[in-house]
């Protein structure tokens, strides 16, 4: 029997101040806090992989590689350089030639035309390297094609330079076909002879 307000308060069932929804909310907050801690730890562990790369590109300049004639455990014969499979056909673009063509008047005329377009701007029409463009090159001047070393060089040397480039000179494969590069090489040899009065 309830005799007073205090008795009623003591006999009433106790209910959590959070209630069912409040309890669920507390659990959600705890889970979120745990997730934040885990993500923070993961980011801290990956800090090295998120670092900005070294801008000097050393990581690209120094890379492990295999030299063509070195030994290798990757292949059964122990060599890096492998023989192409039987029946392999080398690809050559249309209008390309194999090896040095026979020098003819037509080839020299082609060589002069291509030299005047691709080479004369730096090496000069006479091949002496005395041009306005050359006068503004501060690092390396274009070669005088009439120096003794180049006069003695075979025609293959000039073809190779036109194909691979040399020093600051880029390769000319994008503007000259293989035949045109041979034509320029032969024309340079003819130009050398003409400038020193050789027959």
SSE order in H/E notation?
HHHHHHHHH
Q: Round the Cα radius of gyration to an integer and report it.
A: 39 Å
Strand content: under 5%
Q: What class, by secondary structure content?
A: mainly alpha
Note the overall shape: elongated
Biggest beta sheet summary:
none
Unreliable runs? none
Question: Which second-level CATH architecture of the domain at 105-195 applies?
Answer: Orthogonal Bundle
Task: Walk me through this protein's architecture.
This protein is mainly alpha-helical and 199 residues long. The protein has a domain at 105-195: Cytochrome Bc1 Complex, Chain D, domain 2 (Orthogonal Bundle). Helices cover 47% and strands 0% of the residues. The protein is built from nine helices and no strands. It has helices spanning 5-11, 19-45, 58-61, 105-118, 120-123, 132-135, 148-152, 155-164, 178-195. α4 (105-118) crosses α9 (178-195) and α8 crosses α9 (178-195). It is elongated, with a radius of gyration of 39 Å. The termini are far apart. The mean pLDDT is 79.
